[in-house]
Amino acid sequence: MIKNKQKNKNIASEVFYHSMMLPGMVFVLLFNIIPMFGIIMAFEDYKPGKGFLGSKFVGLKHYKYLFQIPDGFNIFRNTLVIAVGKILLGTLMAIIFSILLNEIRHAWLKKSVQTIVYLPHFLSWVILATAIKNLFRLDGFVNAILGTGINFLGSNSFFQPLLIGSDVWKEFGYNSVVYLAALTAIDPGLHEAAKIDGANWWERVFHVTLPGMRSVIILMFAMNLGGILNAGFDQVYNLYTTPVYETGDIIDTYVYRAGITAMQYSFATAIGLMKSVIAFVLMMIANGLAKRYTDSKIF
Amino acid sequence: MNRKKVISKSGYALIYIIVILLGLCCLLPLWYIVAISFSKASAVEGNMVSFIPIGFNTVAYEEILTDKQYWRSFGISIMRVVLAILFNTVLTVSMAYPLTKNKQQFKGRDIYMNILIFAMLFNGGMIPTFLAIKKYHLLNTIWALVLPGAVPIFNVILLMNFFLGIPKSLEEAAVLDGANPMQVLLRVYLPCSVPVLATVSLFSIVGSWNDFYSGLIYITRIQNYPLMTYIQSLTINMEEIVKHGTADDIMRAAKVSEQNLNAAKIVVSVVPLMLIYPFLQKYFITGIVIGSVKE
């Protein structure tokens, strides 16, 4: 009798759990899972009028085409160069900033600086791009200060550095938060011991501070690895112009133009699929690395 | 302590200077937009404004007040933020809780979990998602801005991990007192999770307020644009409009040269974010820490 009651209660709980999952799963099904079936377009000449089943199957045609045109190589190279540049410089800058900030002894100053450097992270690229375009245009503030006439936004030699630099600028403050947390977790006794042994500031940074941040740095790199094909659609879209497509066009912007603007649905899907697959593999690797070298996992 | 021995006074001064410069470096580009918005149009055109407004006036702001499209887009953005928080919070909580149960208590738990992780790591891509939303007849509606992101899977997993960290004894005590799963969730788990929920909600406010991408892809009529997409459309490349645009587009683009007006539009669009910024600052540090270093 009691056993039966317990059993009924368990069934009631399970029904309740399923019903709680249901609404969310419907959204996941509609907006994540069902679109995945659209991937079949990548291997067809999809015509909206004919649908997925009626359109002609063309196998790897779109991939063959992609690797024949110069754009195909360009967008992958640009994506990687821009993303790797952002990750390396961004991480370096965030670590340096967190170490410097940690030395500030005036609490009010530390707090004000933090308030300011976190700010750009919370603003949209739509807004930041306006400021950057104004500051970096031919007759803008930066050229006036440097006394140069560099067309940062329209030159293929300056556009990538501009993208990387402005992204580092936007994110370094925010990214420093994790490192700052790691810094404050380092046992002060280690610093004291190093001081007694006669270590100067630099030696302590390299032998105490950085080793203490090791696992956080590895974890952050692992997380970034998964996003290495995300060179930043929002940023590039808001800053690039036709003359810098050669160095500034990334996978996402290319897919946008091919798919939404030019309505080459199949071709755009094919490129997008390639990106999704590579990103998926990278994220699995990243998670594996994080599990192996740190105590945490990403998902 | 004995810091002076390890780091010289000039070394300290240098650190202070670098940190202050980095701070200024983050502030000045933003301040520049503010300066433009309060300057005379002619001074802006003549490129005379740097970081101090020239010919201080509020004409641009007065003009915004009468700009119907601006406020329509502003309203759409407010609306989508409210809907996003509502959907995100309810769905995150309701999905995170059953996922804390083990396989014995909740058969199928692992299947749900695997589907969610897969959906988080893999996606159909821009075009298939666009076509699906088109098929659902959601293009040009506010739902196209809200529903695709209704389940923030990463947050579901985050909250699930947080729930798992709450001592089991609390739940057991509640169950002994006769609480059903719903009551356990509402009376035990939720009260413990206020900071996490605040964090993810604040992030979802910022995310949907700043998002211009969905508007760009799923909305084709300017009167349905959310604010960031609308602002973005003001700064589109003039060349392309002249080449491909209608007379109407060219008229609209001609206004792009009204830089101080656009600057003012940007400044006003940031006001809501500034209002929640103090709360963000209070919570996002916890947010990052739980988000990146989980067990």
Structure description:
The complex is a heterodimer of chains A (299) and B (295). A two-stranded antiparallel sheet of chain A has the order 1-2. Chain A has 2 domains: 2-57, no CATH class; 62-293, Orthogonal Bundle (MetI-like fold), CATH 1.10.3720. Chain A has helices at 2-37, 51-54, 61-68, 70-103, 107-118, 125-136, 141-146, 159-184, 188-196, 201-212, 214-226, 233-239, 245-248, 251-261, 265-293, and strands spanning 44-45, 56-57. With 299 residues, chain A is an all-alpha fold. In chain A, α11 (214-226) packs antiparallel against α15. With 295 residues, chain B is mainly alpha-helical. Chain B is 74% helix and 0% strand. Chain B contains 17 helices and no strands. Chain B has helices at 3-6, 9-37, 41-45, 59-65, 68-99, 109-121, 126-135, 143-146, 153-164, 168-176, 181-192, 194-210, 213-218, 227-234, 238-244, 247-254, 259-292. Chain B is globular and about 75 Å long. Chains A and B meet through α1, α4, α5, α6 and α8 of A and α2, α5, α6, α7 and α9 of B.
Determine the mean pLDDT of chain A.
90
Question: Which CATH architecture of the largest domain in chain A would you pick?
Answer: Orthogonal Bundle
- Write down the domain tally of chain A: 2
What's the number of helices of chain A? Answer: 15
Write down the Rg of chain A. Answer: 25 Å
Class of the largest domain in chain B in CATH? Mainly Alpha
Helix/strand class of chain B: mainly alpha
Broad structural category of chain A: mainly alpha
Question: In whole angstroms, how far apart are the ends of chain B?
Answer: 36 Å
How would you sum up the global shape of chain A?
flat
Main sheet: strands, sense, barrel of chain B: none
What is the averaged pLDDT score of chain B?
86
For the secondary structure, the number of strands of chain B is 0
Instruction: Bin the strand percentage of chain B.
Output: under 5%
Share in helix of chain B: over 70%
Rough outline of chain B: globular
User: What about the largest sheet of chain A?
Assistant: 2 strands, antiparallel
Give the name of the CATH superfamily of the largest domain in chain B.
Answer: MetI-like
Q: What fraction, in percent, of the residue positions of chain A are helical?
A: over 70%
| Total number of helices of chain B | 17
